[in-house]
Automatic annotation (TrEMBL):
Protein keywords: Activator, Transcription, Transcription regulation, Translation regulation
InterPro entries reported in the protein's UniProt record: ARM-type_fold, eIF5-mimic_regulator, HEAT_5MP1_2, W2_5MP1/2, W2_domain
Span of domain W2: 279-446
Lineage start: Eukaryota, Metazoa, Chordata, Craniata, Vertebrata
Pfam families reported in the protein's UniProt record: HEAT_5MP1_2, W2
Start-end of Polar residues biased regions: 28-47
Protein name stated in the entry: Basic leucine zipper and W2 domains 1
């Protein structure tokens, strides 16, 4: 027999002794699992929340419209109350699905049919932009309603932009008063950043442009926009969406000129916008002039042909000579590959500029043009360090070639220079300026003796 057979057997329930592991009966296991399912542990006071979007009532557009219109009618014309109603309703109503219906109601008072008309059999409300007073203060208040709504429900941003683009295409279907209100509202919303300037693309619709609707709408829009900000802020917004050079497209092709644009908007009280467009047109013309100049120089066109072309562009685009000489200088200096060695670049520059002196001389017929050229030379020599020692040599060359004259050189030396490299360039010019002064005094003495 095994030695452990005679050992006393301890009870399974005896303390300190682990009982043998036995699998629980099958029935007991099932009962245990069911019991676990039925009696989940819970924390006291715990609430199981349903996501808000699951709580929202699903309506068709007509039912959604009825709910919004009923709520707006109850709030009345108190726009603070309207904003609170819209904020609260977003938790129950499906704004995401019916954004277009919501914005149609807030702007026009009901759902809009294609073309911008209200359906006769639909409910309407007078608590909307089109039924409000036609003044900037009221439109500013409505802008706050839209601003609060979209800040609260960020997903409405895209839907609102799409709505405004659609409304702009529907402009012919609205009355003049409704268009004016929408224009003022849009201007304020552009100013406060609720809308992006890209929505203005809708105004370039051929039919709206042809009938003059776009230009008239733009007058009201820009007035309210500039009233909220200024022309610089407006210009920056237009530039971001590459629309700063497209404003003349508000008019038909046969009227797309700077003269017509400035006359129309100046008479409408938007002189700052007119000046902005004129400046933009001039900047564009200058860029085009420089590009064409460089191409003509690289082809080696005769100077007489280049001069004729530049003078025609000056007249056509009203570009003053001091501006043109800066363009010609930049073009001349960009047509050559400059030597990297300082001791050689001066000689190369003199040879190159001597060749182009007749071209430069054609556009320095005014003292201001000569002074502009001197400043351009100073800035160029400072910005391109290899030219630091070449400044005086270039000025002397241009003096001898009659591109520059005594008076502008003396004025530059005295007080018209800029800070860039001032001490170096003034020192370089000291002896030449003294010589010019003496020559001028001698000429005056000779003139007096002749008298």
């Amino acid at each position: 027999m095994d030695g452990g057979a005679g050992a006393p057997v301890r009870s399974a329930s005896a303390p300190g002794v682990r009982s043998a592991r036995r699998p629980p009966p099958q029935a007991t296991g099932v009962s245990f699992m069911n019991n676990q399912k039925q009696q989940k542990p819970t924390l006291s006071g715990q609430r199981f929340k349903t996501r808000k979007r699951d709580e929202k009532e699903r309506f068709d557009p007509t039912q959604f419209q009825d709910c919004i219109i009923q709520g707006l009618t109850e709030t009345g014309t108190d726009l603070e109350a309207v904003a609170k109603f819209l904020d609260a309703s977003g938790a129950k109503l499906d704004y995401r699905r019916y954004a277009e219906t919501l914005f149609d109601i807030l702007v026009a008072g009901g759902m809009l049919a294609p073309g911008g008309t209200l359906a006769d059999d639909m409910m309407r409300t007078d608590v909307c932009v089109f039924a409000a007073q036609e003044d900037l203060e009221t439109m500013q208040a409505f802008a706050q309603v839209f601003n609060k709504l979209i800040r609260r429900y960020k997903y409405l941003e895209k839907g609102f932009e799409d709505e405004v683009k659609k409304l702009l295409l529907f402009l012919k279907g609205f009355s003049e008063s409704e268009r004016n209100k929408l224009a003022m509202l849009t201007g304020v919303l552009l100013a406060n950043g609720t809308l992006n300037a890209s929505i203005l693309n809708s105004l370039y619709n051929e039919n709206l442009v042809k009938e003059g609707v776009s230009a008239a709408f733009a007058v009201k829009l820009f007035k309210s926009w500039i009233n909220e900000k200024d022309i610089n802020a407006v210009a920056a917004s237009l530039r971001k969406v590459s629309m700063d050079n497209r404003l003349m497209e508000l008019f038909p092709a046969n009227k797309q000129s700077v003269e017509h644009f400035t006359k129309y908007f100046t008479e409408a009280g938007l002189k700052e916008l007119s000046e902005y467009v004129r400046n933009q047109q001039t900047i564009g013309a200058r860029k085009e002039l420089q590009k064409e100049l460089q191409e003509q120089m690289s082809r080696g066109d005769p100077f007489k042909d280049i001069i004729l072309y530049v003078k025609e562009e000056m007249k056509k685009n009203n570009i003053p000579e001091p501006v043109v000489i800066g363009i010609v200088w930049s073009s001349v200096m960009s047509t050559v590959e400059w030597n990297k060695k300082e001791e050689l670049v001066a000689e190369q520059a003199i040879k190159h500029l001597k060749q182009y002196s007749p071209l430069l001389a054609a556009f320095t017929t005014q003292g201001q043009s000569e002074l502009t050229l001197l400043l351009k030379i100073q800035e160029y020599c400072y910005d391109n360090i290899h030219f630091m020692k070449a400044f005086q040599k270039i000025v002397v060359l241009f003096y001898k070639a009659e591109v520059l004259s005594e008076e502008p050189i003396l004025k530059w030396y005295k007080d018209a220079h800029v800070a860039k490299g001032k001490s170096v360039f003034l020192e370089q010019m000291k002896k030449f300026v003294e010589w010019l002064k003496n020559a001028e005094e001698e000429s005056e003495s000779e003139a007096e003796e002749g008298d």
